[in-house]
Amino acid sequence: MPATDYQGSSAALTNIGRSLLSMRRDQVHAMESPNDGSAASHEAELESFQRQVADRFHDLASVSPDELLSLDWVRKLLNVFLCCQEEFRVILFNNRAQAMKPPMDRLIADFDERSVKALDVCNAIRDGIEQIRQWQKLLEIVLCALGDSNVNNTNSSGNSNSYQRSLGEGQFRRAKKALTDLAIGMLDDKDSGQSLAHRNRSFGRNNNSGSHSKDHLHRSLGHFRSLSWSVSRSWSAARQLQAIGNNLAAPRGNEVVATNGLAIPVYTMGNVLLFVMWALVAAIPCQDRGLQVHFYAPRQFSWAAPILALHEKIMEESKKRDRKNACGLLREIYQMEKCTRLLGELTDSVQFPLSEEKEGEVRQRMRELGQVCDAMKEGLEPLEKQVREVFHRIVRSRTEGLDSTKS
User: Fold this and answer.
1) In a 10 Å sphere around its CB, with 0-12 CB exposed, 13-18 middle and 19+ buried, how is residue 359 labelled?
2) What is the reported pTM?
3) Is the pLDDT of residue 219 over 50?
4) Between the CA atoms of 294, 296, 302 and 307, what dihedral angle is there, to the nearest 10 degrees?
5) Is the pLDDT of residue 151 over 80?
6) Cβ contacts of 124 within 8 Å, gap of 6 or more
7) Of 262, 307, 273, nearest to 115 (Cα)?
8) CA 23 to mean position of chain CA atoms
9) pLDDT tens digits along 258-286
């Protein structure tokens, strides 16, 4: 959104820094809240929402560089969205009579339209999580081939001895094939999004392939559970984010007054929605990723500074030399790429019989890879559940809004 979108309303919102609703207090001091019967308690509710949003994003922005964009951080981000969305829903419910009057009805309709567009982003992120799972399965093949597992041997006396298995050429060949498949799968170019969409649809929707091919896909990749989630082949994450942020402008003074202050939480939640969807696209592989979405929010809003700071940090991360062509900025994806690249270089350089030094180096790399796999196992399923919860929460909120207009 260009900065000029806000210029017409900047003068009217000069006092937002002291109190987001000070203009309304000055002009409609005697106006009562629709439900509470108290303008003061109504203002307190709205200002509390602003403060809660600011505090939550400040916590997200305060993490160390190693925590930013990790699976744990992305889950915290989604939890922040769910909390904000629930509080926003309560505000609209408490003021449902006002919400059905113009211009509030138009503002809510605009927000609902943005929310519906966010559903497709959730679908694409779900596909991306499943893609990471397929990479994880290839990592598990490498771990199985070269992992630091112990072999138990029971002698004739019944005593059990444990020893490390030796690493042979066959195991390295198997590991190298999996590493090659993984490297190909993680290549990010202009056609990668299209190929991802094609792969997703081929798991159950493409009936032109032979039965042998379908059986092989079923065995090697398991049940692909996102058939009902997959977006179309022409879908673009970059275009969808632009659509969500289109015409997202701060409310003018007359809108603040006319809506009894409710225009401000609608604008706030629109920015929260846009940032969360943008951060998901930045972190998780999906079709036609694009991060060039212009964020602008007046810094008088208490939540603007932490959101803009997070946007800047993530953009800086995306511009790093080793992240420019990444298929996703998720910290665990970066660790996976780093480990597999080093391991690939190592497996290419080994000679047999394997020296003790090389074997020790391989086992060290495998321990690092095992840690990445463990992090994936622990974090992907909870993340997927949260993405699904965000999806259903948006749908439920939209349904409640439609029902309220009929009553």
Assistant:
1) middle
2) 0.81
3) no
4) 10
5) no
6) 231, 235, 237, 240, 281, 286, 287
7) 273
8) 36
9) 999 999 999 999 999 999 999 999 999 99
